[in-house]
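Progress against Task 2.4 (sequence-to-structure conversion) is shown through the following example record, which the project officer requested during the mid-term review.
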Amino acid sequence: MRIGVPAEIKNNEYRVGMTPSGAQDLTTDGHTVYIQSGAGNGSGFADAEYTAAGAMVLSTADEVYEQSDMIVKVKEPIDADLARLKEGQLLFTYLHLAPVPDLTAALLKKKITGIAYETITDERKRTLPLLTPMSEVAGRMSVHVGAYYLHKPNNGRGVLLGGVPGTLPSDVVIIGGGVVGTNAAKMAVGLGARVTILDNNLDRLRQLDDIFRGTVQTWASSGAHLAEACKRADLLIGGVLIPGASAPKLVTREMVRSMKKGSVIVDVAIDQGGCVETAHATTHSDPVYEVDGVIHYCVANMPGAVPRTSTIALTNATLPYTRKLASQGFKDAIADPGLAEGVNVYDGKITYKAVADSQGREYTALDKLL
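Structure tokens generated for the chain above:
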């Protein structure tokens, strides 16, 4: 198969869809890998490294899209990418379609086969293996950026997360006890903050209590509990996920209004629309805004700020699926039910129910189209 890896063009997105070592594995398998010149620069991978790995470096994105059967990316396609996609082409990337009906419509119109990293499942573990590494990065970053924006020169409250002897630590409230929430808690506890995790799954809260050995407070999520937690939060981190669907708006405008002036919200769920009512997507070049004196950080591609770590972690997770798709072809590869869960659009139809439901569009089961 001919596999294309174009440069990412989203605002301040420095990741690339494949490392040189990933390209080498694919070329060893007998496939052709096309890399757009400079695509790996932001992650510290030079064109020469891809050439040494057996990939072919092409000058422009137009050439990569034109010559490839499958496009491997990091972020969802934006206008310039969409114009280059060919009808029926296979697109393997993060899509996050639920909150963006215009993108969905564009992919349907071109009958793109869109496989979303974020909805591929490990059927044995019931996990999301391709979402996990970036959730780990974003969860850990959320505490870093939250602590930074709490600094007074950034209009924050002027508090140190861990405090010092004789002062109280800051309150970090984490909504969601999944991968994002767990990794955020690790960082916040390490910095000495007072950490509370809310989740509606009591079994998960029991697991977290065991993992953290009493160093975090666990609280069953409810409207009343969330409202109370918001009032005392210095840093509020949203890590809620419903696979493939829009995130529920759990933190209302009234809850935001009740928060301390200069407190910080980091909504990691913003890729799926965000779990805070006052949240809207921002970029690394303009990452924050204020609502009722509360700083909102809602960058939709947080891991793009640490591209080398993120690219390596992402390729580690995606490469086995890329190799399967390339070696077996789409129809044989999706005999793996976990990989089939990643197919969000196919042959002009929405094949992932949560996306269809979020947009009020028709859902068609994939097996009916094959």
